[in-house]
Design a protein that fits this description.
The complex is a heterodimer of chains A (313) and B (348). Chain A has helices at residues 4-54, 74-80, 83-114, 121-133, 136-146, 153-161, 175-203, 207-216, 220-231, 233-248, 252-257, 269-279, 283-309. Chain A has 313 residues and is mostly helical. Chain A starts with a helix and ends with a helix. Chain B has helices spanning 42-50, 92-102, 107-120, 136-148, 166-183, 194-200, 218-223, 228-233; strands spanning 4-13, 16-26, 31-35, 57-62, 65-66, 77-80, 154-158, 186-191, 203-208, 211-216, 240-247, 250-253, 258-260, 272-275, 280-296, 301-307, 310-316, 327-332, 337-340. The chains are: A mainly alpha (313), B alpha+beta (348).
Chain lengths: 313, 348
Amino acid sequence: MTLQQPALTATAALVRPARRRDRARLFQEIGMLAPAVMLLTIFLVVPFLLSFWTAMTNQPLVPRPTPVRFIGLTNFLRIFKDDLFWTSLWNVSRFTFWVIPVQCGLAFATALLLNQKLPLRNVFRGMFFLPAITSIVVVCVIWGTLFQYPTGPINQVIGFLSGGRIQPIDWLGDPNWAMFSIVLLSAWQAYGFQMIVYLAGLQGIPDELYDAARIDGANAFQRFWHVTMPGLRPTHVFVLVITTIQAFKLYTQVAILTQGGPKSSTETVVHYMVRTGFEEQKLGLASAVSVILFLIVLVIALLQRQLLRRFDV
Amino acid sequence: MSSVTIEQVRKQYGAVPVIYGVSMDIEDGEFVTLVGPSGCGKSTLLRMLAGLEDISGGEIRIGGRVVNDVAPKERDIAMVFQSYALYPHMTVAQNMGFALKLKGQDKATIDRRVREAADILALEPLLDRLPKQLSGGQRQRVAMGRAIVRHPRVFLFDEPLSNLDAKLRVTMRAEIKELHQRLKTTTVYVTHDQIEAMTMADRIVVMRGGKVEQIGAPLELYDRPANTFVATFIGSPAMNLFEGRIADGSFVTNGGVALPLPSDGKGDAASIYGVRPEHLTIAETGVPANVVVVEPTGSETHVLVQIGSAETTLVLRERLHLDPGQPITIAPDPAKIHLFSSEGVRLN
């Protein structure tokens, strides 16, 4: 025992500074993480959890003398009985159904084009990305002008090309055309982001795979089908999920251009939620809408992931 | 199988030339290795042979047919890439059969030929796996399987072993050589590893800066390098070179050390004296030297010694005990001495 003692002491002496170093490093790491964690907690996690609670109360926007009451699932039941909610859900589903192929297709096609060895490639990449960094409000003002009825530029071009046979369309005022118009401008404004994601995906496919396919005898279409498309599977999933989530959150374009009209044909879930919360001042009810929207988006994202995992993504 | 002729082939990117009129004849069934340092143009030349790069000038013939403007798929070649380039979403069998599928072969034929190739490369148990489920060596074998399944006239290998660890590289080297002996398909193999080139090739093409430095059998290049570049590139450790001049029946280095001249008596105008490390021995009489570093490898010992102001390497088969700083006397084998002109061209 007496012989082992110095050895033990020496080991302990070695271990102690190491532990002290580890602890110091841990404190350092916590210290660096703390601001981000704190901000995320205050501005993201707490409001997110609070919305679940608020959704089950009769909380108004402006505090009243009467106390806020817990009312269980009453808000949810009230929403489910409201036809306007179902209309907004139908509209946003319609929007998503149309905007995904238009926006992602445009992004994919542009990315394929800009991935070629073209002169001034980087200039074009910047130009095509420009709408994505332009404020949506500015985009809405521009497209609002383009869509003007009956003398807006789009109507004039259509009239000119059809030799006057096609009458001017009230793009934003006709319930049959309003959502289509919103789809068009939304896809144009946002496709730049998906284009960049697709470009990154395309550049991640090794050139040697294309060389191997050329030697194997694949023509341009076969190379696209057997090398590019499988190589982009993870990118497709990402783009699909992101675009779906973005589409379900459609608000600004509608708020600026149509305010949900005409005849509620462009009413969306988020627009419905904002109106309930800030115009009708029913914060509890609006929170319930936000919870429903969150659950819908979550289910869709999980479903898409599961579906695409089957294709070995 | 087919012969390959490369005649005055040039390549330039814009105004920058990278291959300067390279010519060589590769015989039917021959295994030729293109070797050289990074950037020497060996991979570019191989890609031009495959049709993956355009040719700026000259002519390439495969089996007597000029293929300058022929698409890769119509050249009847198969290529194995450095990164294997296996299609990640296809199984091993699908990878191997892809070229045949594109050719419109029926399923039974594809299946039979894939199994034949799999049998040669011991790949049968892996046929249903995806590339990500394979080790590096297995992927390499699949890449070779994909090449042989097509029964091409020429095999092209672009540094196929570079991504493997040292041990596996040795195994795969032997496998590729054995495969060539079995199939006897004309093969062009690019590598920067001179050991790979020496051990596998019937003939080696040494390239530097887009030009051919020497073409010959491995031992011919080793025994009679055409210039100092080939002399130092082929062989490991590299050949020892001394600058100096011939005076009074011996070669006097710039450091004033007198070295014996070769027994053939050629090379009067020599100003570079070369001797391979294994052709230097410790002798009773000779050139005095001091041991600097001793590196035992097991089978041999590499000894770095100082002769005058120059450092020289010896490779000794015997297990001698040498200490750093120890004075020794070394002597070159007079029959194995290489003399070069001041431009580095072989004289003897």
